[in-house]
Amino acid sequence: MEHKVVDHLFRHHYGKMVAILTRFFGLSYLETIEDAVQDTFIKATSQWRTKIPDNPEAWLNRVAKNRTIDILRSIQAEKNRNLTITTGASSLQIDELFLDHEVADSQLRMIFVACHPSLHPNEQIAFALKTISGFSTKEIAAALLTKEDAIVKRLTRAKKSIRENNIQFKYPNPEAIQERMLRVMEVIYLTFNEGFHSTNQDKLIKEDLCGEAIRLCQLLLKKEQFRSGSLYALFALLCFHLSRLESKISIDNQIVNLQNQDRAKWYFPLIKMGNSAMNKAVEYDDTSVYHYEAAIASEHLNAKTFEDTNWENISNWYEQLYMFESNMFTLLNHATVCIQLSDYEKTLHLLNSIDVSDLGQRAYLYYGCYAELYIKKGEKELAISFLDKALLGTSNMLEKEFLTIKREGLIG
Questions:
Q1: Euclidean distance between CA atoms 265 and 252, whole angstroms
Q2: Counting C-beta atoms within 10 Å of the first and last residue's C-beta, which end of the chain has fewer, N or C?
Q3: What pTM was estimated for this model as a whole?
């Protein structure tokens, strides 16, 4: 039982504690800080075997603070300075940093560090998942479909860039916020997508990643200087997608496609939050891909049944989205909509416009779309051949099973 409590707290408090201590010590001591926080959770695992404290969070904060003081003493000893840490300004400052509003502020600073332009994009998301969300290198590797040693190298390079470029633990200058926010939102979006449609072999949905993306979005929205139509639209999009999470997997751990999902399982408080965020999003002058994607998600949620879906509206939204920002996945998603409209000529035109190599690890979805087209047209042999191609490119076991069942249905 204590392991479950520690695991839960580690996931939800590791990033907070690292951010607080980094704000106090500075980014140059990041690795030492991560070790100190790790030590705190190891100590919790050991000491909570007999009894979990009444307030586990307060215990963790206290132990982390004391460990911080130990580190500070050793750092000051290296510099041959004699400071009294346990009383006085330094101790009081650490106490103040553990207040809720300071915790949130520290985490926001860390988000902007993670998305600093000096870091390579693939280093940014790895660094964000590690320092902000507390993911292990193994978990990051699984989330990003990369080998663990590659993640270690990315994290090492990110920390080296932070040192060499003297990146500070602070918000960007006001004139740089808008540009930096574009990357921050992209990292949040990618984090959510990996959770909502995981490329992990064994698990299609990773709720931790989805929850972390929503939490980071909410943190940013609490600060007026970071608010924009794009950020509100991104938050709306995440709420809309998350509201359908429970209906995506059946009780016997099978994928349930949109047509067969139990809409009674859709979580309407989240849909309401999403609608409220979209109302805010249109009050701002800026427009983003998140506006269009949220509009598309909203169309699905407004339909009482799959048959009631307004596919014409969704098709129009995809047309506008592609004009706003050309993307192979937009073409692929639009093709699936055209299948529902029985516009097979347009479906083929869209599919022929796609460079499948641009789809990366998701290329199997392209072949799956072709299979759907030929199923709808009643051309079983062609459908089976494309399902075979999709199966070859699928790493997730649930999706393999889903495609295999579909293939067997055609043969049977």
A1: 16
A2: C
A3: 0.80
